Amino acid sequence: MDSIAKNYFVINVLLFFLFLVAIISLYNWTPGLVSILPLNSTLMRTHTDHGLNDELEEVLSKASTEDKMVIITVVNKAYVEPHHDQYPTMFDIFLEGFWVGERTQFLLDHLLVVSMDQTAYNRCLFRRLNCYRLITEGVDFTEEKLYMTADFIKMMWARTAFLLDVLKRGYSFIFTDTDIIWLRDPFPRLKMYKEIDDMQMSTDRFNGYPSSTQNSINTGFYHVRSNNKTITLFETWYGRRTSSAGMKEQDVLAKLITKEGVIDKLGLRARFLDNDHFSGFCSDSKEVNVVVTVHANCCRSIGAKVADLTRVLKDWKTLRDPNNTSNATTWSKHEACGKAWTLPPSLLT
Question: What range(s) does the Nucleotide-diphospho-sugar transferase domain occupy (predicted)?
Answer without folding.
Answer: 107-309
